């Protein structure tokens, strides 16, 4: 797919408009020069976007339509739904989709734990038995006389029950401060079962069910809570049990983690059940020997998106980039295979790869991709499948065209592994020193910066500028997902970044030898941020909404990010979005989300595309909360 050659001045301009990632720029330039299509080209080709869809005012849910709301005359769809209903129904659909994606990922992990317990997933083991036993205790499983395997089966089973609908509550909700749980009860948004809330939401978006936009959006909050305090939280905790609870370590990030003389393999997607097996497979002596026989110096595994974050946090596997880097990794011409599972994978990757020698390998029956090589991956045959895939990648090294290899620049070092357990350990065993620093005003508060890249925003600009502005104001940043990787590429995840922080935060970071921006993991690991908030609330005996904390998603694109934002707000965390959701067509919905929700959950959303202004909003909010606490 070659487009006409573009004039150099235009290439220069586009390159600057598209990203702040210096290692990405040469590849974007090459793509523009030679006509390789990227996400930015497709974004441009979609302009101008449909203004009805953008405002959330179109509905194609049933075949009485499709409908659009066009005042003053066409103010109801064929079924009679008005703007408020259409907008809220669309939004609930997004939340349910995102919640389903996170929680189904969590289920795959929990099922693996269960299979380990039953003895059928022999390639996996229990990496953190202490955490396994703590979780068993929390789930009411007496565990003193049982083996780790027996507990794994019982706990796996109990956690799978959380997905159903007979328990009518979720175990991990009780981690939240009592007063926060009471707020959920009073608002009628305490989730009853993970799957149940998704199904309930899908039921409501069926024509002729949900008709009241407020009621629909409250269900959105309930469904999102079943993700944050349910599916995602289980996903994080059980991943720690199976693969190890992250501890602080160093690694490297950006496209230059690819090695010219190695077989390069990228894992892309989300679920460590796959990627952890690939980590094992790439050290297999036979495969390493084969790589050398084929002329390579060895096998180099790199991560991409959230499954990359999972491996980075636990194993220090270098990270090649975030969401908008995924095509560029292929365009280095040095990638033998990209192994994907699910979520955030461009369906067009095989098309991109067809211009190079890269093999796209899909592994999930839920995410088969035309043009990819499909391996039916399951935990009972994890390692053998991973080895077969790695072998394919190694064999593909000979197909690499050396003339096409273009790995720009050099990698940036980063510090990672900030699980709550690791943070506590660094602080001497509890969050008390952190609380004292916040109370003394040395750290004004903390912000969770999360979420994706989105071609609506210059790649990484929203994340990096917001983070820089906040640390300057002595606000500690905790980050996950693609936001964290943006900060990593910008050097913000190293202790040396303390130099960019305000004087007080700088002094704290220097004495603790930590960066002012802490990488807490992948997007399901936003549950770590919830647990951190819960522990701070419990220590101070206040609900989460009274804490000097906030959330931000400067470049979000995904339905999963909508669910994350919704469970942050539902948990009492003021959250600033950098990209406007498709809701502007209903002033009533906008006002409910940015103001009215305060009446139900004491928190609200704000939308601010300018990261510097967003930092001001967040700082104001944090100062108000400090005043409320009398600190
Ligand atoms: Fe978003 Fe999650 Fe995807 Fe990155 S990978 S684009 S959802 S931040 Ni999780």
Topology summary:
Blueprint: H1 8-18, H2 25-34, H3 39-45, H4 51-55, E1 58-59, E2 67-68, H5 83-118, H6 129-138, H7 148-161, H8 178-187, H9 194-205, H10 213-243, E3 249-253, E4 263-268, H11 272-281, H12 285-293, E5 299-304, H13 305-315, E6 319-321, H14 326-331, E7 337-340, H15 349-353, E8 359-362, E9 373-374, H16 382-396, E10 412-416, H17 420-426, H18 432-439, E11 445-449, H19 461-472, E12 475-480, H20 481-489, H21 503-512, E13 517-521, H22 526-540, E14 549-553, H23 559-570, E15 575-577, H24 587-596, H25 598-601, E16 605-607, H26 611-629
Helix pairs in contact: 1-2, 5-7, 5-9, 5-10, 5-23, 6-7, 6-10, 9-10, 10-22, 10-23, 11-13, 11-16, 19-20, 19-26
The structure holds FE(4)-NI(1)-S(4) cluster.
Features:
Substrate Binding Domain Of Dnak, Chain:A, Domain 2, 631 residues, binds FE(4)-NI(1)-S(4) cluster, Rossmann fold, six-stranded parallel beta sheet, 49% helix
Describe the structure.
The chain has 631 residues and is α/β, with parallel strands linked by helices. The chain folds into 3 domains: 83-243, Substrate Binding Domain Of Dnak, Chain:A, Domain 2 (Up-down Bundle), CATH 1.20.1270.30; 255-370 and 383-404, 3-Layer(aba) Sandwich (Rossmann fold), CATH 3.40.50; 417-629, Rossmann fold (3-Layer(aba) Sandwich). It is 49% helix and 10% strand. The chain has 26 helices and 16 strands. The strands form 4 sheets. Strands 6-5-4-7-8-9 form a 6-stranded parallel sheet. Strands 13-12-11-14-15-16 form a 6-stranded parallel sheet, with helices on both faces. Strands 1-2 form a two-stranded antiparallel ribbon. Helix 5 (83-118) packs antiparallel against helix 7 (148-161) and helix 5 packs parallel to helix 10 (213-243). The chain is globular. The protein starts with 7 loop residues before the first helix and ends with a helix. 56% of the residues are buried. The model has no long low-confidence stretch (mean pLDDT 97). It binds FE(4)-NI(1)-S(4) cluster. FE(4)-NI(1)-S(4) cluster (XCC) binds next to helix 13, helix 20 and helix 23.
């Amino acid at each position: 797919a070659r487009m006409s050659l573009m004039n150099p001045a235009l290439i220069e301009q586009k390159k600057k408009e598209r990203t702040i990632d210096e290692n990405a720029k040469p590849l974007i330039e090459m793509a523009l020069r030679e006509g390789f299509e990227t996400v930015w080209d497709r974004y441009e080709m979609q302009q101008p976007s449909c203004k009805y869809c953008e405002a959330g005012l179109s509905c194609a849910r049933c075949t009485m339509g499709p409908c659009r709301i066009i005042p003053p005359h066409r103010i109801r769809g064929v079924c009679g739904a008005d703007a408020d209903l259409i907008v809220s129904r669309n939004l609930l659909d997004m939340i349910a989709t995102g919640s389903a994606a996170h929680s189904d990922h969590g289920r795959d992990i929990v099922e693996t734990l269960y299979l380990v317990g039953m003895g059928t997933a022999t390639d996996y083991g229990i990496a953190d038995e202490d955490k396994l036993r703590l979780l068993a205790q929390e789930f009411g499983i007496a565990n003193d006389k049982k083996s780790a395997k027996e507990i794994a089966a019982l706990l796996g089973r109990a956690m799978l029950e959380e997905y159903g609908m007979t328990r009518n509550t979720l175990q991990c909700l009780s981690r939240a401060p009592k007063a926060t749980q009471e707020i959920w009860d009073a608002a009628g948004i305490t989730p009853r079962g993970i799957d149940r809330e998704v199904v309930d939401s899908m039921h409501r978006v069926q024509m002729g069910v949900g008709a009241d936009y407020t009621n629909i959006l409250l269900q959105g909050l309930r469904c999102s809570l079943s993700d944050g305090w349910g599916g995602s939280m289980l996903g994080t905790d059980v991943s720690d049990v199976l693969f190890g609870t992250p501890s602080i370590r160093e690694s490297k990030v950006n496209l230059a983690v690819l090695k010219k003389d190695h077989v390069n393999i990228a894992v892309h997607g989300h679920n460590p059940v796959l990627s952890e097996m690939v980590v094992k497979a790439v050290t297999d002596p036979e495969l390493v020997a084969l790589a050398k026989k084929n002329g390579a110096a060895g096998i180099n595994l790199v991560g991409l998106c959230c499954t990359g974050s999972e491996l980075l946090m636990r194993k220090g596997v270098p990270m090649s980039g975030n969401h908008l880097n995924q095509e560029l990794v292929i365009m280095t011409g040095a990638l033998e295979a990209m192994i994907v599972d699910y979520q955030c994978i461009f369906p067009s990757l095989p098309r991109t790869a067809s211009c190079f020698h890269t093999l796209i390998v899909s592994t999930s029956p839920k995410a088969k991709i035309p043009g990819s090589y499909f391996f039916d991956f399951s935990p009972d045959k994890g390692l053998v499948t991973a080895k077969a895939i790695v072998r394919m990648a190694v064999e593909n090294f000979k197909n690499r065209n050396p003339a096409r290899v273009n790995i720009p620049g050099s990698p940036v070092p980063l510090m990672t592994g900030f699980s709550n357990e690791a943070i506590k350990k660094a602080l001497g065993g509890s969050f008390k020193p952190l609380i004292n620093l916040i109370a003394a005003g040395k750290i004004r508060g903390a912000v969770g910066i999360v979420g994706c890249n989105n071609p609506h925003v210059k790649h990484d600009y929203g994340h990096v500028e917001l983070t820089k502005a906040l640390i300057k104001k002595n606000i500690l940043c905790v980050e996950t997902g693609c936001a964290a990787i943006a900060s990593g590429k910008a050097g913000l995840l190293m202790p040396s970044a303390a130099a960019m922080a305000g004087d007080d935060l700088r002094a704290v970071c220097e004495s603790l030898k930590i960066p002012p921006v802490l990488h807490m993991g992948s997007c399901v690991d936003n549950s770590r941020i919830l647990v951190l908030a819960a522990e701070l609330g419990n220590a101070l005996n206040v609900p989460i909404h009274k804490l000097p904390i906030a959330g931000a998603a400067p470049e979000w694109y995904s339905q999963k990010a909508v669910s994350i934002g919704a469970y942050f707000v539902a948990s009492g965390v003021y959250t600033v979005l950098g990209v406007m959701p498709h809701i502007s067509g209903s002033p009533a919905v906008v006002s409910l989300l940015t103001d009215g929700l305060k009446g139900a959950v004491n928190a609200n959303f704000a939308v601010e595309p300018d990261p510097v202004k967003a930092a001001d909003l967040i700082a104001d909010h944090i100062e108000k909360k400090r005043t409320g606490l009398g600190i």
